[in-house]
Structures are given as C-alpha cells and as structure tokens.
Amino acid sequence: MTSGSLESRRVAVLMGGRSAEREVSLHTGEQVAAALSSFGHIVETIDTAEPTFIASLQQTAFDVAFICLHGRFGEDGTMQGLLELLEIPYVGSGVLASALAMDKVMSKHFFILAEIPTPEYIVLHANESYDLEGIVRAVGPKSVVKPANEGSSFGMSIVHAPAELPAAIEMAFAYDSHVLVERFIPGVEVTVGVLGNDELTALPTLEIVPEHEFYDYESKYIPGMSQHIIPARVSTKVAEECQRISVEAHKVLGCRGMSRADTIVGEDGTVYLLEVNTIPGMTSTSLLPDAARAAGIEFPELCERLVSLALEA
C-alpha cells in the first residue's frame, strides 16, 4: 500500500450506467479503479447498466462507493439516494446538491439568490409555444441553448443569429423537456475545482481553449482538441474572483467532497458563473485532475483524498 494512504478499504467503483455519457463514465471508472488499487484498496467495478448492480452492492460489505457516473442516473441525485438507502458512504455531494447542480435552471435560481453573477436566461418548456422575438429581447441576438439536465455539452449549441434559434431549441428538446437559453458572454472560459467538506480548497484556475467554437464533447474527451492553461491567463484579481465564486457556489448548492465550477470572464473583467459539476470527469484529458496536478496532487492521491473525504462526511 502506498505510503500515507488510508487503511485498505473495500471500494465499489460505480461506472457505465445508462446516460449519454456512458463511454466517458467507463473510462473514468477504469482510471479511478486503477488509482485506488495502487493504494492497496480492494476495488470492484460495477456497471450500473446491469440489472444486477443493486444486488452486487448488497452482497458485498463495501466501505465506500466511488461514483464515476456522469449525467442522468448518477450525477443527478438518484444514485446518491440509492446509496443512502443501502447505507453505503459515497464520494461526492449528497442527493439535494447533486440534483440542484444537475438541473441548470434550478441552480441558476440559487446563484441569483446568492447574488452570484450569471448570464441572463430564459427557460422553455416542451409542448409550450415560445416567442422568438421575446427570447432575443431577453438574452440578445447571440445566445447559448442547452438542455436543462444534461452533461458533456450534449444538445448544446451557440446561436449566432435569431434565425438559428428554432433548430437549436429543437435539438436541445431532443435531450430534455426543459431548455435553457442563455445570453452569450464573449470572454475567457475558466474552470475551478473545489475540494473539501467543511474546509474548502480552491484549486488553481484553469483556462480552457477548445479547438472548436465551444468546449463540446470532442473538445472534452479527445486528446489534442483543447488546451488546458494553468493558471488561467487572467489577472490575479480576476483569478481570485473565479476561485471565490467557485467556492461560494459549492457552498450555496451544499456540495461536499469535490465540485468544479465553470465560469466566463467577460471582456470587462466580470466573472460569470455558468454551472457547477458535482462529478467532474476523471479521465486523462479531464479538467479537475489537471488542476489538482498543478496544485501538487497527483491523480492517485486525488482519488485517495476523495475517498477520505467521503468517509469523513
């Protein structure tokens, strides 16, 4: 067992699942399982798409579960609720925080109540008519359209002119019954990881420079399709504000263990919070592990620390 690790634990790594992010989840789970095994833990990988996965959790006395599920049925509070019922401690945020962070509309409400700057937006509902001119008046001619409950940029598009709105909205509705249309903020995309339960640590700022127009699925998961610049190329004052907002968002939603906040630094230096991820990607191209590495925390140690935080909580 690696020096400085916890005593050996029996860990269930939950991966795969049924969301659109299944393949990413499998990759994340494999890397997390290898990292925890290197610390001497007894690791069992469980694909939650299998009908027998609940029985697998019940048949073994697991000390902790490491949730490597992205998107629906994993990051949205459902798996967290199951683990609560099974009385198995788990890595990451609880039921409510997970559900709130996954729902981009509900989390926006909380950000506004906490006076955290976030781009103007409107919400559209399936089977209800909408006013294109009203949307443009509310958020401007250039906007971002995305499903309220989806990850990895599935169903998301940037609208450059009002004529593009109907197709973008239709695509987003293919993924969810609620769609968010948000003002497009030109600027620098900066993400900040947060670690901890009661005592929180903001990781270094990370600037995302995608090869495509925005940080889409290929930019996230194909090596070479995006640059991760640490620290972000912003002023010290702006970097500190990105970290402050990320920690505040973590608190406002009631997150624990880890989170990663995505922000945009506008051309005037204003920092806008876009969303919070409660189960960030943990692959070789993922953002949180890169930021942790810049803070001196290698990937196996990061996984080990998250297990420790889960047991502490």
Q: What are the defining features of this structure?
A:
3 domains, 13 strands, alpha+beta, Dna Ligase, domain 1, D-amino Acid Aminotransferase, Chain A, domain 1, 313 residues
Please summarize what this structure is.
The protein has 313 residues and is an alpha+beta fold. It is built from eleven helices and 13 strands.
Word description of this protein:
- The chain has 313 residues and is of the alpha+beta class.
- It has three domains: 10-91, Rossmann fold, CATH 3.40.50; 99-118 and 186-312, 2-Layer Sandwich (D-amino Acid Aminotransferase, Chain A, domain 1); 121-183, Dna Ligase, domain 1 (2-Layer Sandwich), CATH 3.30.1490.20.
- The protein contains eleven helices and 13 strands.
- The strands form three sheets. Strands 8, 9, 10, 11, 12 and 13 form a six-stranded antiparallel sheet that branches. A four-stranded antiparallel sheet has the order 4-7-5-6, covered by helices on one side. Strands 2-1-3 form a three-stranded parallel sheet, with helices on both faces.
- Helix 1 crosses helix 11 (299-312).
- The longest helix has 18 residues, at 236-253.
- The two termini are 23 Å apart.
- The mean pLDDT is 92.
